């Protein structure tokens, strides 16, 4: 006979608007990628899918690579990490560093 176990305690919902409201902060991304014509569009698409426009964006060419730095307010650490993981999955991206942006 099957025994029914009690359901586990509710788990934290990282996508719930209330979690976003209390945990949201400005996150800074530092991305090193190949200097390809479409890489900026592909990186920024992850934000545009969420109807977000970065607060600050800087791009510098370092030889055959690009250093892309941007700040995006209103992200929870979990959501920012999901975006960073998606960026890392792009073939042209070598690394993505993520940290809380220093508040002036």
Question: Can you walk through the features of this model?
Answer:
- The protein is α+β, with helices and mostly antiparallel strands and 104 residues long.
- Helix content is 28%, strand content 35%.
- It is built from three helices and four strands, in the order αβαββαβ.
- The protein has helices spanning 17-23, 39-48, 77-88, and strands spanning 25-34, 56-62, 65-75, 93-100.
- The chain has a four-stranded antiparallel beta sheet.
- The chain is globular.
- The N and C termini lie far apart (63 Å).
Rg result: 18 Å
**What portion of residues belong to β-strands?**
25-35%
Find the count of extended strands (DSSP E, 2+ residues).
4
Strand order across the biggest sheet? Answer: 2-3-1-4
Helices and strands, in N-to-C order?
Answer: HEHEEHE
Helix/sheet category:
alpha+beta
Q: Main β-sheet: number of strands, strand sense, barrel status?
A: 4 strands, antiparallel
Give the helix level as a range of percent: 25-40%
């Amino acid at each position: 006979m099957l025994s029914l176990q009690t359901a586990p305690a509710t788990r934290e919902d990282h996508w719930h608007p209330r979690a976003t409201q209390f945990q949201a902060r400005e996150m800074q991304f530092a991305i090193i990628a190949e200097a390809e014509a479409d890489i900026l569009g592909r990186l920024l698409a992850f934000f545009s899918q969420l109807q977000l426009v970065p607060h600050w964006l800087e791009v510098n060419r370092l030889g055959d690579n690009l250093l892309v730095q941007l700040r995006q307010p209103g992200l929870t650490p979990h959501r920012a990490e999901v975006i960073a993981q998606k960026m890392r999955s792009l073939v042209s991206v070598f690394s993505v560093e993520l940290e809380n942006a220093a508040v002036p």
